[in-house]
Amino acid sequence: MTTASAQRAAVILAAGKGTRMKSALPKVMHAVGGRPMVDWSLALAQDAGCSRIVVVVHPSQDVLIAHLKANHPDAAIAFQDPPMGTGHAVRCAEEALKGFEGELAVLYGDSPLVPVSVIEALFGEVAAGAKLGVLGFEAAEPGLYGRLITNAAGDLEAIVEAREATPEQLKVRICNSGVMAGGAKDMFRLLQKITNQNAKGEYYLTDLVGLARAEGGRCVLVTATEDDLIGCDSKSDLAEAEAIFQARRRKALMDGGVTLVAPETVFFAHDTQIAADVVVEPHVVFAPGVKVAGGARIRAFSHLEGAVVGAECEIGPYARLRPGTVLAKGVKIGNFVETKNTEMGEGAKANHLAYLGDGRIGADANIGAGTIFCNYDGFEKHQTSIGEGAFVGSNSAIVAPVSIGDGAYVGSGSVITKDVPDDALAVARGHQMTREGWAKTFRTRKASEKASKKKKG
Q1: 213-226 residues labelled b (16+ CB within 10 A) or e (exposed)
Q2: Which of 82, 121, 197, 269 is deepest in the core (most CB within 10 A)?
Q3: What are the tens digits of pLDDT across the range 102-143?
Q4: How many whole angstroms separate alpha carbon 66 and alpha carbon 312?
Q5: Half-sphere exposure at residue 356, Cβ-oriented, CA atoms within 13 angstroms
Q6: Are residues 313 and 343 in contact, defined by beta-carbon separation less than 8 angstroms?
Q7: 187 vs 100: CA distance, rounded Å
Q8: Alpha helices, DSSP H only, in 141-180?
Q9: What digits encode the pLDDT tens for the residues 271-282?
Q10: DSSP 3-state assignment of 309?
Q11: pTM
């Protein structure tokens, strides 16, 4: 986080209905990199040193409001009802920032990829004396974007909407992102002068540039890439932003020493941490909350979420690590093994077809194929403890709460309901009964019955 000399605040505009998303979920709650877009903007404001943050929402956005209260209690919530444009939206935050006299940035809840460096640059221009700093980008296809018109000195003279631009102005490729910064007092004072005398009858934030210049204020332009400033109004926009994020994350990890065998098939979350010398095979998904230490190998078609993977572990193929999984050095999790809220000590193994939930497994323990930790009784979850060096035979059901001691053995096919002492053998299954010649007699009788039915037919 920056060590800004002036106080900083941010207003995040998030009241849009997002009708083009065609979803009951508020637009800004749709995720990129496993993180709601509004959370990207909140993190951006925090990383830029904003000590006060206001999110402007519509009162009908119950899911968004509940999310903000639960996950961002330090952010103030302001309501825009009815929506009357971006300028009006920022004014709705004025009461929440009453008495604040520092620098203010206006951000958008549907722009998840804005780098903190450009927000720092905007604040830097304001600190250097600019009345307003506006963030723009060079568009491949400017289309209906507002154009940022600069003078010979490079200062921003005007923001011109495409529908109102002259043919000469339409040739300008630097377009408006909507993000801007200025002194909070100046911005709120100028917002009071904005009118809604336009085709939409709305109050436009972009009018601040003309008003600031009319007072002799200097407005400046800061630029970022078009990808940095992508806004997500539809599911296709969302997919494009996700693709940009994933491409950047893959490159950053490979640059940091991670081997991705087929990068385009691997997907990461916003907070995925992978150390150098990790190998990730094709078709692996990292949901939020995963950390992988050096030397580990994540094999194909595995899914990890909320898991900590230790050094030199081998995961998969076709493994699922769920939240609360913590694996020490050298653990092996094989094909079709699922873990949840389970810790495994150094060198422990579960190589095939197992469910390990709410457990603690000691170092060098071996969990056989088909083993299930029966952790749920229909009402509550219970713990299973497997000691160091223990061996659990295939097709065993361990009914929690239960403890299997260090060095103990569980015979294959057992249903374990009681604690097993250290170095003991526990076998809990029905006795085998063998009847010599029964199968031959059975086959002969059934064949005779079948032949008799055919004759009668």
Answers
A1: beeebbbbbbbbee
A2: 269
A3: 999 999 999 999 999 999 999 999 999 999 999 999 999 998
A4: 41
A5: 34
A6: no
A7: 12
A8: 167-170
A9: 999 999 999 999
A10: strand
A11: 0.91
* Helix (H) and strand (E) counts in the chain: 9, 35
Cα separation of 44 and 228, whole Å?
12
Instruction: Please give the Cα distance from 144 to 423 (Å, whole number).
Output: 75
Per the listing, tokens 């998969």 go with 316
Between CA 386 and CA 404 the distance in angstroms is 5
What residue spans of 23-85 are helical by DSSP H?
A: 37-47, 62-71
Per this entry, what is the length of the chain? 457
CA-angle at 36, arms to 33 and 39, nearest 5°: 105
b/e 112-148 (16+ beta carbons within 10 angstroms → b): bbbebebbbbbbbbbbeebbbbbbbbebeebeebbbb
Strand residue runs (E) in 211-319 = 219-224, 259-260, 273-274, 279-280, 285-286, 291-292, 297-298, 303-304, 308-309, 314-315
**pLDDT given for residue 5 in this prediction:** 58
Which residues does the annotation mark as catalytic? 352
pLDDT higher than 70, residue 236: yes
52: amino acid identity, one letter? R
CB atoms within 10 A of CB 447: 10
